[in-house]
Every structure is written in structure tokens, then in C-alpha cells.
Amino acid sequence: MEKAREVLEVSDEEVARLKIHPHRVGVECSFYEDFAVRGIRVDLVEPGLVSCTFKVPPRLIDSNGELAKGAIANLVDEVGGAVAHIQGLPMHVSVDMSISFLSSAKLNDELEITSKLLGRKGGYAGTLVLVKNKATGELIAEGRHSLFGKHASKM
After folding, report:
1. pLDDT tens digit string along 104-154?
2. Alpha-carbon Rg for the chain in angstroms
3. Which residues touch 134 (CB under 8 Å, ≥6 apart)?
4. Ramachandran quadrant class, 119 (left: phi over 0; alpha: psi -120 to 50; beta: rest)
């Protein structure tokens, strides 16, 4: 524990040199957007269906040289949430996700991420997200995603 503390310890001088600029919403990408979702290309949007392509970047590779499981979960969350979004309303929040990791993806593999809306009930929505290797058709992961958000008024 002491060794970890020494490695992670930062001096006051190092902190003083940091320049952290405030994020300008709508003008530039946040750290999260830049790190986690940069590179997703939307190929198709239809009611109840979103299809994207994503080339596996070095920043999301784990120590085994594979796309990190957390990055796959993030893709399921993002693309699953996109298909449930209703224009003019705030984004839904994830209530539950269940992901089956069936295979792995390597650096520079091109993935096809498809999200289908399974249904809506009040403010709840359910989606199915498939992550496939675009070249081989191999299923990398299958995710079920339930979300909750404000729904359009019936008045």
C-alpha cells in the first residue's frame, strides 16, 4: 500500500502546473466524449433502430490487447440510449444493463453496433444492442438495456 501511495503521490508544484480549463458545453467535447465515444460513426437512424460503426482505438485496449469490457459496456449504454431518445426531451438514464461478452475485439477491428428499441411503457424503454465484428460477422457482445426518462405528454 505504501508503494502505491508513493507512485501516485503528486507534489504541490505538479498540481500548480496543471491547467484545467472549464468545459464549454456545446462548443467542445468533454473529456468523456473525447476519450470514450470519439470515433463512433452513425450509419443509419430509423424509428426504433440505430446502427453505428466503430474502429477499435489504442486508448480502449486492455492489457490483453483486446477492447476493454468497460468500453464495450459504454458502447452498449451510449448506442442503446440513443435509440430510446425522444427529440426535445432529456436523455433517458440507464436503469439496468445486462451484457453477454461472447468474443473479443482487437486493435483496429471495425465493429458494427446495432441497437433496436424493444418497446416503451410510460417513461421506460427497453433496447437490444448487438456488437459485431464487421469483417467476420462474429458477435462480440449482446446487451439488454432498460432506461427511464420523461415521456411526452398525452395532452
Report:
1. 999 999 999 999 999 999 889 999 999 999 999 999 999 999 999 876 666
2. 19
3. 53, 109, 110, 111, 112
4. left
Q: For residue 145, list its beta bridge partners.
A: 97, 127
Query: In the predicted model, what is the mean pLDDT of residues 65-88?
Result: 91
Give start and end residues of each alpha helix (H) in 9-128. Answer: 12-17, 31-32, 69-84
- State the pLDDT confidence band at 87, using cuts at 50, 70 and 90: confident
Write down the H helix ranges in 10-131: 12-17, 31-32, 69-84
The C-alpha atoms of residue 55 and residue 75 are separated, in whole angstroms, by 12
Domains of the chain plus CATH, in order, are 45-155 (3.10.129.10)
Provide the CA 101 distance to its chain's centre, in angstroms: 15
Question: How far, in whole angstroms, is CA 129 from its chain's centroid?
Answer: 11
What size, in residues, is the chain? 155
Q: Which element (helix H / strand E) includes 53?
A: strand 49-55
Name the 3-class secondary structure at 21.
coil
Find, among 89, 80, 147, 86, the residue nearest to 114 by Cα: 80
